[in-house]
Structure formats: C-alpha cells, structure tokens
Design a protein that fits this description.
The structure holds 2 protein chains of 2 kinds.
Chain A: H1 2-33, H2 50-57, H3 60-91, H4 98-111, H5 115-125, H6 130-137, H7 149-162, H8 165-177, H9 180-188, H10 193-221, H11 225-231, H12 242-251, H13 256-284
Chain B: H1 2-26, E1 36-43, H2 46-62, E2 66-73, H3 78-88, E3 94-98, H4 126-129, E4 133-134, E5 137-138, E6 141-142, E7 145-146, E8 150-153, H5 154-159, H6 168-177, E9 183-185, H7 197-207, H8 222-237, H9 244-248, H10 259-262, E10 266-270, H11 273-285, E11 290-293, E12 309-310, E13 312-315, H12 323-335, H13 337-343, H14 353-361, H15 367-379, H16 393-407, H17 413-432
Parallel strand pairs in B: 1-2, 1-3, 9-10
Antiparallel strand pairs in B: 3-13, 4-5, 6-13, 7-12, 8-10, 8-11
Helix pairs in contact in B: 2-13, 7-8, 8-17, 16-17
Chain lengths: 292, 433
C-alpha cells in the first residue's frame, strides 16, 4: 500500500518539478517582492506596505485600470456565455452538415490573439476599414473605433466574444446530455419550444453555466493579449486592463515590487468574485442528483 | 500532515534541481568539438540580420577555435529580454543595446576600457565615447550616431509643385498646395508609442537651451511646455499633421510603416538615419522617391534643435566568461574591413573610424545617407548632446497620455503643459539619485 503511494509520486515528478519551479516558487516570490522595491537589476529592499499604500492612495492609473478591467469583465463574460449558448443550441439541432459548422465556429478560438489578429482587427475597425465601409453603405456615419474609449473597449470585448468556441463545446456536450423524455413530457403537456428552453433546457444546464461562468470570469480578469496587441491599452488608458499594467510595471518600468503588489490585488479580486459566485450558486444552480 | 509532506517533497525537488543547474553554471561552455562557444544578441530587420550573420561566418572562418551562437529578433520586447537576462546572469557575451538604456544597466556591464586594444578602442573618438561613460567606466562601443532629419516624399512634392521644405513656415505653406486628404507632415507620435524627441528639438528651437544644465537641473519652465504645446496644436488645428485621434484610427500596426505614409498621403516625416534605408526601399516599392530636407528651421530660432545620440552600442556583461573572445568579435564586427563591406549601412554610418573609412573607400554610403549626414554635421547643436538621455520609457508614456488627452479634448493646453512639466521634474529627480 505504502509502496504504491511513492510509485505514484515518482511518476508525478516531472509535473511536481514544473509546478514547483514555474508556479509555486514564482507565486511565493511575487508575494515577497510585493513588499520590496525590487527593480530586477538591483537587490530588493524591504519597504513594507508602501507598494500597496501607493496603489490605493497615490496611483490614478491603478483606478483607471481597475475600472477598465471590471468593465471588460462585465461585458465579456455574460455576452460570451449567452452567445456561446445560443450557437450551441442551434448546433444541437440535427441538421445536415452540422459537423462542418461545429468545426467552423471553433476556429476563432484556436487563433487566440496574435499579431495576425491585430492586423485583421485594424483592417476591420480603422477609419476607412470594413466595418465603417459597411456603416457608410447603409447611410450611417463612420465610427472612430480606436479613438473613442467605448469603441476601443468594444473592439477587444468583441475579440473575446468571437472566440466563444470552448464555451460552446462545453454547452454542446451538456445539451446532448439532457434526457429526451423531459422534452417529450413537456411537449405532451403542451409546452412550446420557447417555454421548453426556459423551463427544461436552462435549469438542466445551470451546473454547466456555473462552470463556464467561473472559467470565463477568471480568464476575462486575466485578459492581456487583446489590449496589448489591438489597442495598446488606449486611447487614454480606456482599455489598459490590469494584467497589461502588471506587465508594463515589471518589464517596462522595471518596478517588479509594484508589479507583484498589483498581481496580488488582482488575485484577491478574482478570489472574491469566484467566492461570491460559489456562495450564491446554491440559490440558482440546479443539480439533477441533488448536488451529490 | 498531507500539506507538510507535499511541501517537503517540493522543497527536496527544488534543492535537487538547483544543485543540478548549479553544476551546469560552473562548467565552461564549450561546444562538442572543443571550440570556445560565445553568444551574441542584437535586434533588427531581415537585411540587418542577414548581414550580421554573414559577417559572423567570416569571423568564424578567421578564428576557427571560436564558435558564435546568434540570438536576434525585432526591437519589440528586446529590452525586456535583455533586462531579464542581465538580471539573471544569463546574458550573451556580446549584447547590442540601445544607448538610452546604459544608465539602467551600469551595474551589469563591464568597463570596456579594461579590454583596451583587443576591442579596438582607438578606432573611436573621445566625442562618440563620452556619452557612454558612467562614473569613468565605458559601458559600450557605439555602432553609429543617430539623429532624426526631416524626410519627404519627393514624388508627391514634385507632383504638386512644392520645393524641399527648409523651415516650419515652408511646411505650413505646403497645406495650400496639397489635396485635402493629404497632410504636409506625419504626426510625431504613433498610435501606441510616443517618443517626445521631436518635442525636445522644438523646445530647443524655442528656448535655445538643452533640457538640463551641467548639474542636471531642468532648464525648462512650465511656460516653455505651454509654448511647445501651442506650436503642436497649431500644427494639428491648421491640418498640417493628422491629430493623434486620426493616427489612432489610421490602421497602423506596431513595427510596420503607417498605411497613409506608404500611400504618400503624409508627405514629410522625421526618421532616424539608421532606418532611412528601410523606409526608402518600402516607399520605392510603392513608386515613391524619398529625399531629405534640412531640419526645419523656426523663425527667430535660438538653436537649430538638431541633436545627435549614439544609436546602438555593443556591450559586454560582467557575467561573461569569454571576455577576450567577446572583445575579438566586437573588434571584428566594428572595425574589420570585410565585416564592414558585408554590413554596409545596416547599423547606420559607423562611428568606428576604420569602419567609416572602408565604406568611404568602397563608396558604400548611399547619396541619401551622405546628404543626411552632411546636413546633420552642418546643423548639429553640440549644446544639446545630453538630450537623448531624457528619451525614457516613463516620459514616453506620459507624452503619449498627455498628447492623446490634448487631441481628444480631454485636457486643455494649460493642464497638458502642467502634466508634462510635472513628469519631466520627476524624471529630473530620478536622474539625480
């Protein structure tokens, strides 16, 4: 019995080394550095809570960045989930050639946010880009997407919603697991498709919605590529999300200590949000087996 | 109990692996065939990368006992990489750095004077080395000297009957001759990145003073910044250059030339000498000829506003175990005849006396580049020689922020001037530390 346990651990060694070096060690060190003035090039000196005090009392950029992050999360997460569920619902019908569409809709998620996507987004949203051309064609004025705070936020929110593939696949799987007899029974009772969706599908899906919600929430809080590549955090820091501020503090301003403090604030924030969701989940998440 | 065991295991693994990596560090890096292996890193575009690699191949032929490993990429992210490597003690033996980073790395770089003639120090004049010294230590050897002349699209100016602009007034006058959707000048700032160096020149033209005096005190007052911004806003309001707002919507992508520039719609622009070859070729592909105008003069100017800076330098980190070979490689790349013939103008016009002589003899300096150089030498104001030190990441950020808010109407000139002044004052304090 005991020997078995160590064999297991032995097989886990590569993973253990990885997590120790690349997760636990940096995780702990960032906490330590957040109490220092570490600049990467000089030895760190302990400065107590100075970084945290500076953040909350004397750094307007932090508040701007925090506001932008929360705005981004509030828009991205629900919209992405609704969209993913909507598409998954359609994909679940037994239509001809549905396999092709299931793959096609997943493609944007593979692309991620890279320079090619940044080029595409610029092409779509620049002043004489495709979107504005389309607007002009239907007689509307061009919109300065990258030159208005809301427009720029829209472009990076859209980028993430467009990549709804992974959430869709999870929904799709859950949809096919819903027992058919529930639909049969409800249609005998005279429920319309619309009524079925809200009274059968949605309640059955709540555990998966909850799972996706947590996943997307954590991801959205950590969003970096979109603003970094597409908007550069601008204009006027309107899309300067916290992860971007963390990166620039560390590697552009060489303020590792402050960057560490920012990361920990972000970490605590994500913790609070997920805890709230977990606490409230008992009120709205429905488990067919009673949650056992 | 479980947690404790978990931590013990983690700790043991950590210690074990760090012991292993410690062993690796102590052994010298030699390749399998017994050659000494050294590493070099730089940034650049395709043509520069090819040229340097070719020169290095020549170096290896002449020094069969040394093997050179190359690491290169674009400018984006290069500094982050260097900083991390220098901090971690894993930097290559020869590193190319931007001169404005020197102060930051002064504790990580070795004094090149120690290497003396093996690095070919006598090929550099006192003038070009002075800006790279810190506390009497020479932190890098300059590849070339840079400044930003005003370039213009000659095909477009010819078409509309415009003479090469000599002054800011000439630039303003271009407005009447160009079609409405053209701009006489590109904005000084990109959509995501702003270096205030053209501002430095305008400030110098307006005040006749460099940013700081010999004791490091800032010369400019808040009112000077207000005058500067008045001048800038004039350029935007009279449609001499697109506003920052238009730049943001122009579809520019980091690292690529602005589309409007390539369409010939932004007719003049400031660009570093080291980049003119690239831009000249890019414009040629679109059927445009690039020419250099003089640095625009200002009515009643108190300085020409032209200042130069060492562009890129070669440095050697203190952690290297191959000082002699590193010196040899630097010496070869900068001063050797063959190496210069291969690299041509890829690094700008060489500061190395031997290197420059090779290019002169072989007539490898393009007419455009010689003209830029000549104009620079004629107009340079040596009082401004320390200006480049103020081109810091922090001031770049603040400038980007302030100019955006000003052009978007979120700030008025007074507030913007105050924000700039405050940021420069903070920079002054950090220099004094």
């Amino acid at each position: 019995m005991k020997r078995n346990k160590y064999t297991g651990l032995f097989y886990l060694t590569p993973w253990l080394i990885g997590i120790c070096f690349f997760v636990i060690y940096p995780f702990l060190m960032s906490f330590y550095y957040s109490f220092t003035n570490y600049s990467l090039l000089d030895e760190p000196a302990f400065i107590g809570f100075d970084n945290y005090i500076r953040m909350f009392t004397n750094d307007p950029t932090f508040w701007v960045s925090l506001k932008a992050t929360i705005k981004f999360v509030i828009f991205t997460v629900p919209l992405k989930l609704i969209f993913a569920l909507f598409i998954a619902y359609i994909m679940n019908f037994k239509l001809k050639g549905i396999g092709f569409f299931r793959t096609a809709y997943y493609i944007p998620s593979i692309l991620g946010a890279n320079v090619a996507i940044a080029v595409l987004w610029q092409f779509l949203f620049k002043s004489d880009g495709l979107i504005n051309m389309a607007l002009n064609m239907v007689g509307m004025d061009s919109i300065g997407w990258f030159s208005s705070p809301n427009g720029a936020m829209f472009t990076i929110v859209l980028l993430r919603i467009w990549q709804f593939g992974s959430a869709m696949v999870i929904f799709l799987n859950a949809l096919s697991e819903i027992p058919q007899e529930l639909y049969e029974a409800s249609s005998i009772d005279g429920a319309s498709k619309f009524r079925q969706f809200f009274s059968v599908t949605l309640p059955q899906l709540t555990p998966i919605i909850f799972f996706n919600l947590i996943l997307q929430l954590v991801q959205a809080f950590q969003e970096f590529d979109g603003p970094f590549l597409v908007t550069g955090g601008g204009p006027m820091k309107s899309t300067y999300l916290l992860p971007m501020y963390i990166y620039e503090s560390a590697f552009k301003n060489f303020d590792m200590g402050y960057s560490g403090a920012l990361s920990w604030v972000l970490f605590v924030m994500i913790m609070i949000f997920t805890t709230i969701l977990f606490k409230t989940s008992s009120k709205w998440v429905f488990y067919a087996d009673g949650g056992k | 109990m479980k947690l404790r065991r978990m931590l013990t295991i983690c700790g043991t693994v950590l210690v074990g692996v760090s012991l292993l990596s410690g062993c690796g560090k102590n052994s010298d890096v030699t390749s399998k065939d017994g050659k000494e292996e050294i590493r070099i890193s730089w940034w650049g575009g395709d043509s520069r990368n090819k040229a340097i690699q070719e020169a290095i191949t020549k170096f290896e032929e002449q020094n069969p006992n040394i093997k050179v490993k190359t690491e290169f990429g674009g400018y984006g992210g290069y500094q982050e990489k260097m900083t991390t490597q220098l901090a971690g003690g894993t930097a290559p033996d020869v590193i190319r750095l931007d001169s404005m980073w020197m102060d930051q790395y002064k504790n990580q770089l070795m004094d090149l004077k120690e290497l003396g003639e093996s690095i070919g120090i006598s090929n550099f004049s006192e003038d070009v080395l002075a800006p790279l010294e810190s506390d009497g230590k020479l932190l890098g050897l300059p590849l070339s000297t840079n400044y930003r002349p005003l370039l213009y699209n000659k095909t477009v100016t010819d078409k509309y009957g415009i003479e090469a602009p000599q002054s800011w007034d000439d630039v303003f006058a271009m407005r009447d001759k160009l079609p409405e959707d053209y701009y006489p000048m590109a904005n000084f700032f990109g959509s995501k990145y702003a270096s205030p160096i053209v501002f430095f020149s305008i400030l110098a033209q307006q005040t006749g003073l460099p940013i700081s005096d010999d004791n490091g005190n800032m010369n400019y007052k808040e009112s000077d910044f207000e005058n500067l911004l008045t001048f800038y806003r004039d350029l935007v309001e009279k449609k001499i250059m697109p506003s920052k707002k238009e730049v943001d919507n122009s579809g520019s992508i980091e690292g690529a030339p602005a589309p409007a520039l390539m369409e010939g719609k932004w007719v003049t622009f400031f660009e570093f000498i080291a980049n003119t070859n690239t831009i000249q070729n890019q414009l040629k592909e679109q059927g445009f000829d690039l020419e250099v105008a003089s640095y625009p003069s200002m009515k009643d100017e108190k300085s020409t506003g032209v200042w130069t800076k060492p562009s890129m330098v070669y440095s050697v980190p203190k952690t290297t175990k191959h000082k002699e070979s590193a010196a040899k490689l630097i010496n070869f790349l900068m001063n050797n005849e063959e190496a210069n013939k291969i690299q041509k103008l890829e690094n700008g016009i060489p500061d190395s006396i031997a290197g420059k002589a090779v290019l002169d003899k072989e007539q490898l300096i393009s007419p455009l580049t010689s003209k830029i150089l000549e104009l620079g030498e004629k107009k340079v104001d040596t009082n401004l020689s320390t200006m480049y030190k103020w081109d810091t990441a922090k001031l770049n950020d603040v400038t980007l922020d302030v100019i955006t808010k000003l052009d978007y109407g979120e700030m008025d000139k007074k507030e913007a001037a105050n924000a700039l002044y405050t940021a420069f004052k903070e920079q002054e304090q950090s220099f004094k530390k």
